[in-house]
C-alpha cells in the first residue's frame, strides 16, 4: 500500500465561542478515511489537542489502524489549550476548572454534535488526555457519567485530590479506562511541585479495581514525554474502537 495514504488527512479548524470561558476556543476536527456525512462515527475528544496531533501523531496512527487493521473509523476532536491557563483549567478545584467543564459538556459537545455526524451517547464518546489532561478527562467522566464512560489516560496526574474523589465512589463498573504509566515517572516536575506519578497511578489503579472499573492498566519503562505515549497510542485506541 502506498505510504502516502497514511499521511493524507482532512482536518477542519473551528473556533467555538464560549460564554463559560469568556473567550473562543480553537479546536481541530479530524475527519477519518472514507468520511461520509451519512455515517455516524465514534468521537475522540483530546485535551491538549495541538499536542495530540503534532507530537502524538494521532491522525497518522488512526489512518494506520483503519487501513491496516480494519479498526472502526472515528472523528477526532483536538481541543486546544492556552499553556498559561492549562493548569487552572485541567486541575480539579482550580480557578478555571468548573468553567472548562461547563464549556466542554455544554458548548463543545453541542457544537460538534450539531455540525458533525458523531454519536451522541456516552458509549460513542472517548475522552483522551496526557498528564493533567488525563486528570480532567477522568473527572469529566466522574462528574458527567450520563455523557462519558470511556477515558484514555496517558500518565494521568492522578494525585491526592483525584484519589480522594475515587475513595468517595462505590461502583465504577460503568467506566472503561485505559491507564498508561512509565516506570521512570517517579519524579515528574509540574507547576505544583515534583510528584511520583508512578506511585500515584498504582494507588489509583487499586482504587479503580476495588470499584470494578473496566480497567486496562499498562506499566512499562518510559518517561513523562510524548515519545513514550505515542508508541502506546495505537493499542490504546484499539481498545475503544
From TrEMBL:
Transmembrane segments: none annotated. This is Esterase family protein. PANTHER family: ENTEROCHELIN ESTERASE-RELATED (PTHR48098), IRON(III) ENTEROBACTIN ESTERASE (PTHR48098:SF3). Gene3D superfamilies: alpha/beta hydrolase.
Amino acid at each position: 500500500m502506498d505510504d502516502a495514504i497514511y499521511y493524507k488527512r482532512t482536518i477542519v479548524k473551528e473556533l467555538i465561542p464560549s460564554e463559560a470561558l469568556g473567550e473562543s476556543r480553537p479546536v481541530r476536527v479530524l475527519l477519518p478515511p472514507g468520511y461520509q456525512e451519512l455515517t455516524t462515527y465514534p468521537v475522540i475528544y483530546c485535551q491538549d489537542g495541538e499536542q495530540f496531533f503534532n507530537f502524538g501523531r494521532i491522525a497518522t496512527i488512526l489512518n494506520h489502524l483503519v487501513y491496516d487493521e480494519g479498526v472502526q473509523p472515528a472523528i477526532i476532536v483536538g481541543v486546544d489549550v492556552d499553556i498559561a491557563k492549562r493548569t487552572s483549567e485541567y486541575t480539579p478545584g482550580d480557578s478555571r476548572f468548573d468553567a472548562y467543564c461547563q464549556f466542554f459538556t455544554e458548548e463543545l459537545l453541542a457544537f460538534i454534535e450539531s455540525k458533525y455526524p458523531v454519536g451522541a451517547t456516552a458509549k460513542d464518546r472517548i475522552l483522551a488526555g496526557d498528564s493533567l489532561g488525563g486528570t480532567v478527562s477522568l473527572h469529566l467522566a466522574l462528574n458527567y457519567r450520563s455523557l462519558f464512560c470511556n477515558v484514555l489516560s496517558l500518565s494521568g496526574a492522578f494525585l491526592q485530590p483525584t484519589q480522594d474523589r475515587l475513595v468517595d465512589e462505590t461502583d465504577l463498573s460503568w467506566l472503561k479506562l485505559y491507564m498508561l504509566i512509565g516506570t521512570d515517572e517517579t519524579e515528574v516536575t509540574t507547576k505544583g511541585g515534583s510528584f511520583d506519578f508512578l506511585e500515584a497511578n498504582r494507588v489509583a489503579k487499586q482504587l479503580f479495581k476495588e470499584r470494578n472499573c473496566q480497567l486496562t492498566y499498562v506499566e512499562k519503562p518510559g518517561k513523562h514525554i510524548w515519545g513514550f505515549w505515542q508508541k502506546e497510542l495505537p493499542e490504546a485506541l484499539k481498545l475503544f474502537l
